[in-house]
Structure formats: C-alpha cells, structure tokens
Amino acid sequence: MKYLTLNNGIEMPVLGYGTWEVRGKAGLRALHYAIEAGYRLIDTAHMYENEDIVGEAVQQSGLSRSEFFITTKLDSRSNSYDKACRGIELSLRNLQCDYIDLMLIHENYSNSDQMYKALREALNNGMVRSIGISNFREEAYLSFIERCGIIPAVNQMESHIYHAQLGYKQLLARHGTVFQSWSPFTSGERKVFDEPLLKQIALRYDSTPAQIVLAYLISQGIAVIPRTLNPEHMIKNMLSLELKLSHDDIEAIKTLDEGKSLFSWY
C-alpha cells in the first residue's frame, strides 16, 4: 500500500474503499471482499446509513483495529455544535470502535464552524485522530482556514479525468490539506471506461481503463476511494498501485480535463 502523510503526521492509505450505496447483507459481503482484497481505508458517512455494517465488517475481519483507517462524515443532521457532538458519539457506537481515524464535515453547512469546533474537541480527547472537510470549494476553503483553528487534514472533492482539479489540489497542498477524490470514476456521469484514450493507454500497460484512471490520479498526489461491489474489480483497483504511467501518458490524460464539474448540485 502507498500512503499520504497528513498534516498531523498520520499516514493515510492513498487508495481506499468507498461505500456510498453499500448497504445491507450485500454491502456487508462487499466489505468482507474489500478487506480480503487488501483495502484498509474504508470511507463511510452518516448520509450513507451504513456505518453499522462497516463496523461489523471490521469486527468480523479478525484483524486489529489499528490495521484500518476509517473515515466518516457528519451531514446536515449534525448542523450545530451540540448535534455534531452527538453525531460523533453516534458514529463511534455504529462503528463499534474507540476512535475514528478521519472525520469530515460532509459539506459546507451554515454551522460548519460549530461542527468543526466539536471535531476539534473530539480530536483533542482522542475520539478522532484527524479532522477535515468535504465538498468545500476554493473560496469556502480559504475562508474556512482563516478561522477554523486546525487546518483540515483532508478535503474530499469531486476529482476524475474530466475535472481533476489539479490546481486546487496544489493550493490545498500549500496549506497542508490532502486532496481526496470521491468520484474517480465519475459516479456514472460519464462512461469513463469507454474513453478511447484510456482504452488505448490501458492496452500498453496490459491493464484496464479503471486502473489507468486510478494510477493517473494517484500519480498527481490525489487519494482515491473507488466503489465497487465486484470482488474482481476490487482486486484490479488495488493492482493500480503497481502501475507507473509514463510522462507522455500522463500529459495525454490531462488533455481530457474539461475544467468543470459533472454534477449540477455542486
């Protein structure tokens, strides 16, 4: 596994397992497959309503809790200091663990400052090992770090070959925040696996377009959390860590970047 070092010295796997819409018995099976395939970063959220099966999968894995890097997120239901405090405690209960490796504010809410205050306190008392944000665009991020007290360790954002946001990634890095992609495969907004250039490059590396996408983002210092229920795809995604793309191929992939979001809600 490759790691990125967060601004508090903690190492975070550069590749993790995203769990949006991973629920129920099928979701629990998928989590077991992911752990067997070598995933140790598992990304969940209050909004996903699956913290319980993430905790169950970790408990049933037979591995030490310290082997895992668990990320979760507070959503709009925790949009105050008191609600955020309760949300943190709820996550710990759902996940059946004594601490959370990374906890984020899911979006830029009206009371994000108060939510972050609760996260800072959870960090100080050991309930959380690192704290951050998600879906904070550049202006919101720059405003937030002027008053937040602790620079976010991570900002989880849309990032894929059509909108990698490499400039924003560099800005975040200058301030000490790691950029993590929640949509490396565009969440179905594009048929990225049918992209002719990716298919052409994949042939040269005896790999798949999905592996090329992940290898490209990782080469740019962007952490990724792809989601799949397919055990074979899980293994192939993990193997993307072994790919080293040439400079020319990286530059070719950059030409696909359209510089705009694929999601209207953004």
Considering the chains and any ligands shown, give keywords for the structure.
266 residues, alpha/beta, 8-stranded parallel β-sheet, two-stranded antiparallel ribbon, 10 helices, 10 strands, 40% helix
List the helices and strands and how they pair.
Layout lengths: L2 E3 L5 E3 L3 E2 L5 H14 L3 E3 L7 H10 L8 E6 L6 H15 L6 E4 L6 H13 L6 E4 L3 H8 L8 E4 L8 H10 L2 E4 L14 H9 L4 H11 L3 E2 L6 H9 L7 H8 L12
Parallel strand pairs: 3-4, 4-5, 5-6, 6-7, 7-8, 8-9, 9-10
Antiparallel strand pairs: 1-2
Helix pairs in contact: 1-2, 1-9, 2-3, 3-4, 7-8
Give your account of this protein's structure.
With 266 residues, the chain is of the alpha/beta class. It contains ten helices and ten strands. The chain has helices spanning 24-37, 51-60, 81-95, 112-124, 138-145, 166-175, 196-204, 209-219, 231-239, 247-254; strands spanning 3-5, 11-13, 17-18, 41-43, 69-74, 102-105, 131-134, 154-157, 178-181, 223-224. An eight-stranded parallel β-sheet has the order 3-4-5-6-7-8-9-10, with helices on one face. A two-stranded antiparallel sheet has the order 1-2. A hairpin with a 5-residue loop joins strand 1 (3-5) and strand 2 (11-13). Helix 1 runs parallel beside helix 9 (231-239). The longest helix has 15 residues, at 81-95. The chain is globular and about 55 Å long. The mean pLDDT is 97.
